[in-house]
Amino acid sequence: MGDAAVAGLTIGISVYAAAILIAVGMGLTAARQGRRRRAIICAVIVGILTVAGVVIAVASSIV
User: Fold this and answer.
1) Residue 53 to residues 13, 23, 37, 48, 49: CA-CA distances in angstroms?
2) Which domain of life does this protein belong to (predicted)?
3) Structure letter (DSSP) for residue 2
4) How far apart are CA 49 and CA 18, in angstroms?
5) 47 neighbors 17 (Cβ within 8 angstroms)
6) Hey, how many other C-beta atoms are within 10 angstroms of the C-beta on 19?
7) What does the pLDDT read at residue 19?
8) pLDDT at residue number 63
9) How far apart are alpha carbons 40 and 37 in whole angstroms?
10) DSSP string computed for 44-60
11) Distance, CA of 40 to CA of 51 (rounded, Å)
12) What angle do CA 24, 47, 6 make, to 5 degrees?
């Protein structure tokens, strides 16, 4: 892999992790404020991102 590809992967992983952390933070804030719908949506987003990450990791290890 070239340096550009490694840098791209690093940035991608950082953005992915940031998206999960932002969704968790928003979900916790929404739960504290009693906004159930927003908290549930954030939990679903975190779940989808987590499952997508696992699927991509497994797929990349196979290929």
Assistant:
1) 10, 15, 24, 8, 6
2) Bacteria
3) -
4) 11
5) no
6) 13
7) 96
8) 75
9) 5
10) HHHHHHHHHHHHHHHHH
11) 16
12) 85
The answer to whether residues 20 and 50 touch, using CB atoms and an 8 Å cutoff, is yes
Structure tokens at 46: 């975190």
Question: pTM score > 0.90 for this model?
Answer: no
- Count how many residues are written for the chain: 63
- 42/31 Cα distance (integer angstroms): 10
Kindly report, residue by residue over 19-63, the tens digit of the pLDDT: 999 999 999 999 999 999 999 999 999 999 999 999 998 998 887
pLDDT digits (tens, 9 = 90+) for 6-24: 888 889 999 999 999 999 9
